[in-house]
Amino acid sequence: MVISVAPCPYQRARYEDECSKANRYIFVPWNGILTLIIPDLRSSLPAGVTVWLRITRITIPHGASGLILLHPYPIWINNDYAKVHDGSLYIRVTEQDMANGFIKIEYLAILRLRQRDLAKMKTLAIYSQTQLASTSYKSLFIAGVFKTCSKPKLATASWWNTFVRITDEKENIIPFVQCLKCLSIFSYEANKTGSSTHRSHAQYCFGGGAPSPSRNQDISTLINKNKNMFAGAKSAFTEACAKFCAYDLRPFEIVNGYGFEVLCQSILDLAHQHPHLTEARSIISDPTTISRRVKNLAEEHRLALIETLLPDLKKIKLFGVTTDFWKNKFSSESYLTVNVHYNKDGYMKHLVLKTVLVNEAKTGENTKKILMNILRSFGIDPDAYQIIYVTDNGSNLISALDGEAHIRCICHCINLVVAQSLEQCPMIDLLVSECRELVEHFKRCELQSKLELTLKQDICTRWNSTYDTLWSIWLNYEDVEEILATRKEEKFIVGIDRYLIKEVTDLLSVFKIGSEKLSADDTPTLHSVLPWFSKFKKTCEPKNTDTSIIVQFKKKLLEKLDDKMWISEIHYISTFLHPETKSLATLTQTQKNEVVQSVKKMLKTVGIVEEKLEVIPINDNDERKKRRNKRAKRDDITVDDVLKEFVSNENLSNDDDDPYDEVIEYMKSKVNYEKDEDVLSWWKKHSCLYPQLSRLAAALLSIPSSSASSERIFSEAGRILEARRQQLNPESLDSLVFLRNFR
């Protein structure tokens, strides 16, 4: 079915005799709303089918002679669910749209190109409204009428093999370069800008993607930035923001939020559409109306998410779920938050699915029922997917997930190791108590302002806070001592041994850095649990220079590492799937072979390969099979350092006459893995060589090793449920938290 719409009278093209060549073929966006009548197809469509409205090019006559053919291309539309494919815009048509009988399209902009210019376009982009301003170079890039030329003759840097220079219509070199793979455009002036961004992009670009992140400003920022143009308007708006913060008692940081930017952009758009509006109050909605809209908006996004999430999960076959309970400190009501973690197109994705109030007892049975119902509400059948759950060590969560693929939050385990070890060393426990009293005294007497760096209070629920307390006292020791002496309060510091503080913090700093690295949810961490576990153990090995107190502390840490660090088969498989640690250096040959068999079993379990018998040769020179552990700002320690420390150069021996086996070939191969290279990018580059393992690695390594994502939600919810918002109902809280997925 084709729906043809006549051109709107308010939308017009710029032709050759009206403006410069650079701006010749760009439509002026129409700021109205285009309404299309659509049929109700719900009764005739099979389940699971999504309807898309396609806005595509047509060939139309142009000019007095009618001989020149132009192709309108959609380049921008104000629709969150629009996507570009093969020169067309696609807009999802929801069931609500079909029930309404129409769909509305806002701000449609069309790009007109001649046939010869059209042939030069290899990719399309969707631009924001502000990016459609026709200024100098930007118009050239939008219209696609710029030219490229080869790299400078004297250029020897390898990244130049991926880039070409850009010239204007007079063939003058302009300060930009273009990637040959993905056609991204970067600023570049030999004498003014560095080349680290271009070198990094050339290394990691696979074509068709976005530019690598960088400290350099992107081209949109460089071109649209004009400090003098809007100086007066910006000054007036700054004054308005100052009044807003003062009159409504809002923090200054409110203007840094993305939501505030969206609000301001909406006001600008409305002012452009309706210039007759003079009273702001005429468009400001009632709080109750906004509350209802938050819930409706969340429901719309939730339905849209379900339509896109389920195909993604079916494709990857394996994903992770993190969950945890948290409590409203004002009402003591308990909430449960559920997050999903998966891989999409080689990148980690993390979404908050649901935040619910828990009124019934938090038993294992009730917890499992709530968790599974939340997953099913998003169309996720827990029995039909391979799910790895990541939670803390709460007994109710352990009971609820009995029989499921479940790993314990590694950061909670590290925190338990440190906390219990400190408590069981009397001298260090006494030191920590004295330090807490000192910090409390400084806070109570308002002495913090006299210090260059404030003292940090130890909070039992905050990871690494004991380290922060001790380290802050070490940094301020002389100043603290001087302040207390002037007040004749030396009793607060007489029991604190500054040298013992230094020895303890030197030891705990490794645990702090490790837990911070492992708490990330936007970069793979599951593979580095074993290397960090090994790092912790090496750090706790006694030295001849250690005092008796430190020897005792290290002994306790080693005991708790074996007792509290919960290491599972999943961690071993993840470590094997990292190119740098695939040798599994700390294991015997027999144990390595067991891990290889576990990898093959997981490939079959998640449906990546068909079930068949697998046999690999075993070369075990160690007659005693060591039993695996089953539970198992200073100078920074990088993840790369920890991985290299874990690496062994020994090769696994296998006969060259064995039939091809992807897992064995990967195990035997000598890989080239550069420092700071992203492991997901490495697998994406080697997906042709290891098609099965790359799929498993992408899915498994996108699952976090900790439930820190849920902990961060607690902080966000705490800012929402502040003292003055205790009447906020749970549904509104869930909607507010859920909508933050789409920032």
Describe the model.
The chain contains 25 helices and 17 strands. It is an alpha+beta fold and 743 residues long. It has five domains: 21-141, no CATH class; 146-224, no CATH class; 231-284; 290-407 and 707-742, Nucleotidyltransferase, domain 5 (2-Layer Sandwich), CATH 3.30.420; 415-700, no CATH class. The strands form five sheets. Strands 15-14-13-16-17 form a five-stranded mixed beta sheet, with helices on both faces. Helix 8 packs across helix 25 (730-739) and helix 12 (426-444) packs across helix 13. It starts with 32 loop residues before the first strand and ends with a helix.
What is the gist of this entry?
The chain is built from 25 helices and 17 strands. By secondary structure, it is of the alpha+beta class.
Number of helices: 25
Strand order of the largest sheet: 15-14-13-16-17
Distance between the amino and carboxyl termini: 35 Å
Please give the share of residues in helix. Answer: 40-55%
Cα-based radius of gyration, to the nearest Å: 30 Å
Beta-sheet strand percentage?
A: 5-15%
Mean pLDDT: 77
Residue runs with pLDDT of under 50 for 5 or more positions = 1-31, 59-78, 112-145, 208-220, 611-633, 649-659
Specify the biggest β-sheet.
5 strands, mixed
The global form is: globular
The computed structural class is alpha+beta
The counted number of beta strands is 17
- Domain count: 5
